[in-house]
Amino acid sequence: MLETQTQPRPNLTVDGIAINVLSLPEAVNSIVSAAQDGDNFSVCTLNLDHVVQLQQRADFRAAYRRARFVTADGFPIVVLSRLLGTQIERTTGADLVEPVCQEAGRKGLPVFLLGSNESTLATTARHLSERYRGLQVAGHFAPGSHFDPYSREADFAVDSIRASGARLCFVALGAPRQELFAARCLDELDGTGMLCIGAGLDFIAGTQTRAPSITQKVGLEWAWRMLREPRRLGPRYARCIAAVPRLVMRTIPQIVNARMRKAA
Predict the structure, then answer these.
(1) CB 36 within 8 A of CB 227
(2) Which residues contact residue 76 at a Cβ distance below 8 angstroms, ignoring those fewer than 6 apart?
(3) The pLDDT of residue 221
(4) What is the pLDDT of residues 20-71, one digit of tens each?
(5) Distance from the first to the final alpha carbon of the chain
(6) What distance lies between CA 134 and its chain's CA centroid?
(7) How much is the pLDDT for 6?
(8) CA 152 – CA 174 distance, rounded (Å)
(9) 86: closest CA among 261, 203, 215?
(10) What whole-number distance in Å separates Cα of residue 79 and Cα of residue 48?
(11) Whole-angstrom Cα distance, residue 168 to residue 81?
(12) Rounded average pLDDT over 177-183
């Protein structure tokens, strides 16, 4: 009798980047396991703004392609992945912070906080340490608003992370700076996972308010944010919406091929 072979799951690929983590629990388990193994790695969360930047910036593409773990942040990314036949859940950088910290506390993995401002980082460090027993926040650093991932300030940040002994670093600098800095750290640190998390630390400190959970679940978190900050976010989301047709057209061949393989 012939044995049936399980076909590998089809992962959506965008500009050469595969979304290879399908859920928050899978992301947490993968990140913590890699940190326990002493690996250098980076984590990126793909959304439409990142899709636009991937098309425009070669350095951003290169940084993204070095990420070991990539989740689907944007709702359109989730929809296209599901059309491909992959059961996937939206997982943002902000979603990762607390469950990863919970497991880091249990496993004795020190963490470092990078980004935002010193007041926010101090508040976040205190909240996380109080909330998750055993969690060691080994250090934090808030670079200036014009942070360059290859500047002397970035050199200081790398040295600070290294000296802290952190096994995980939450990088809250916004795209593309956080992804570029994380990629640099892959070459200069030893045994530290870099998690690119956007505004995740600000949400914990309460200096920014995250969209209500219902808007997150139905894929309208972007609309909620734009209504609160139309001048800053309106142009960004206009570019994101304009990128959707091209993303869909480039994904259709992947969907067709996946469906044909499944039917064969």
Answers:
(1) no
(2) 48, 219, 244, 247
(3) 87
(4) 999 999 999 999 999 999 999 999 999 999 999 999 999 999 999 999 999 9
(5) 19
(6) 24
(7) 55
(8) 19
(9) 261
(10) 12
(11) 28
(12) 98
Confidence band for 19, pLDDT divided at 50, 70 and 90: very high
**C-alpha span between 258 and 43 (Å, rounded):** 26
Question: 82-96 pLDDT, tens per residue?
Answer: 999 999 999 999 999
pLDDT tens per residue, range 201-218: 999 999 998 988 888 887
- Residue 172, Cβ density class (10 Å: 0-12 exposed, 13-18 middle, ≥19 buried): buried
123 vs 8: which has the higher pLDDT? 123
Alpha-carbon distance of 204 to 237, in angstroms, equals 24
Tokens of 143: 């670079």
pLDDT of residue 5: 53
Partners of 58 in beta bridges:
none
Q: In the structure encoding, which two tokens stand for residue 117, read together?
A: 């401002």
Relative orientation angle of helices 48-56 and 58-65, to the nearest 10 degrees? 120
Which residues share a beta bridge with 172? 115
**Whole-angstrom Cα distance, residue 91 to residue 70?**
9
Give the pairing of strands 13-14 and 17-18: antiparallel
Q: What is the full DSSP assignment across the chain?
A: -PPPPPPPPP--EETTEE----SHHHHHHHHHHHHHTT--EEEEEE-HHHHHHHHH-HHHHHHHHT-SEEEE-SHHHHHHHHHTT-------HHHHHHHHHHHHHHHT--EEEEES-HHHHHHHHHHHHHHSTT--EEEEE---TT--TTSHHHHHHHHHHHHHT-SEEEEES-TTHHHHHHHHHHHH-SS-EEEE-TTHHHHHHTSS-PPPHHHHHTT-HHHHHHHHSHHHHHHHHHHHHHHHHHHHHHHHHHHHHHHHHHH-
